[in-house]
Amino acid sequence: MKTFNTTPHWTIINCISIKRQTIGQDKAFKMAKIFWVEDQSHWVNKLQPVLENAKLDETPNTISVYKFSEAAKQQIKLIDEDNKPDVALLDARMNGNDQAGFSVSKALQTKWPGLPIIFLSEHNGTDIERDALEKHNVNDFISKNQTNIEDVLCWRIRATLRQASLQSASAEQLPGNIIIKDDLKIDLDSWEVYWHDNKLMNPDNDKRPLSPAPRKILRCLVERSPRPVTPSQMAEFLKVDPDTYAAATYRQHIKTLRRSFDASEGKRPSFSDNCKKGKGIVAVGDEGAYCWK
């Protein structure tokens, strides 16, 4: 079924079958939604029937296709939480702009941290692929120039959704706006944070709560785990000016968080020491990024 509208972009709505299960449960998630941005109609015509007829699951899912990056970004602003996509499939270079796909992934990650993003591009093996994986922290980069691209695309979408299911189960948001990740619990109503059932407090004054910025940063890191978050991405999440939110500020907030975890642990091994070993709030790369592991 195709639907067209009179706006400068076009949308194709179709059903495909992609299975998503919870850990330890033989239960399908609600209908998955794929957000696809592709400016070349011959790729849509080639791959649309494949996705429609893929034998991946018994549950129908929705694909929305946008031809222009600007139209896609406008739509992202309009989509409410109940209709957010489960995975995004993006072309990299569109209408002569090498940054078009990245601008869409940035908008998606800002609104929905942790949303799985796959790039489908003809520019594999180039700086575009490198930047997608290293700077923009996308989940996968698939080359269109493969003889079996139809099969590869289905395999990789399925794998990405399966991985998202695993991460969703390990960082579960429970009724009442509570996020749980292993021994960490974040109450999004009260903004209280618990580690091994001990409340995180201000490390400089244990009578005062942890300040808002570190708590929000921790939420972002947990929701995007295991992908790293750069200073500019964190600035967007915090809704502050990326030009004024320096890497040093981000680093200071991370130090505050680590000290707060240390104070809550008592006689247990230092949380900060574990971070240096790659467990906890871990520094990634040389651009000042951090991730939760």
Commentary on this structure:
The protein is of the alpha/beta class and 293 residues long. It has two domains: 14-171, Response regulator (Rossmann fold, 3-Layer(aba) Sandwich); 175-292, Winged helix-like DNA-binding domain superfamily/Winged helix DNA-binding domain (Arc Repressor Mutant, subunit A, Orthogonal Bundle), CATH 1.10.10. It contains nine helices and 15 strands. Strands 1-3-2-4-5-6 form a six-stranded mixed sheet, sandwiched between helices. It is elongated. The model is unreliable at 1-31 (pLDDT under 50).
Task: Spell out the key features of this protein.
9 helices, Arc Repressor Mutant, subunit A, 2 domains, 293 residues, 38% helix, alpha/beta, Rossmann fold, disordered N terminus, 6-stranded mixed sheet, 5-stranded antiparallel sheet
Helix content class:
25-40%
Beta-strand residue percentage: 15-25%
Annotation field: number of helices = 9
The CATH architecture designation of the largest domain is 3-Layer(aba) Sandwich
End-to-end C-alpha gap:
42 Å
Biggest sheet character: 6 strands, mixed
Overall pLDDT metric: 79
| Strand-pairing-aware structural class | alpha/beta
Task: Based on Cα principal axes, name the global outline.
Answer: elongated
Low-confidence stretches: 1-31
- Gyration radius (Cα, Å) is 20 Å
Q: How many separate domains?
A: 2
How would you name the CATH homologous superfamily of the largest domain?
Response regulator
Widest beta sheet: strand line-up: 1-3-2-4-5-6
So what's the CATH class of the largest domain? Alpha Beta
Order of helices and strands: EEHEHEHEHEHEEEEEEEHHHHEE
Question: What is the third-level CATH name, the topology of the largest domain?
Answer: Rossmann fold
User: How many β-strand runs?
Assistant: 15
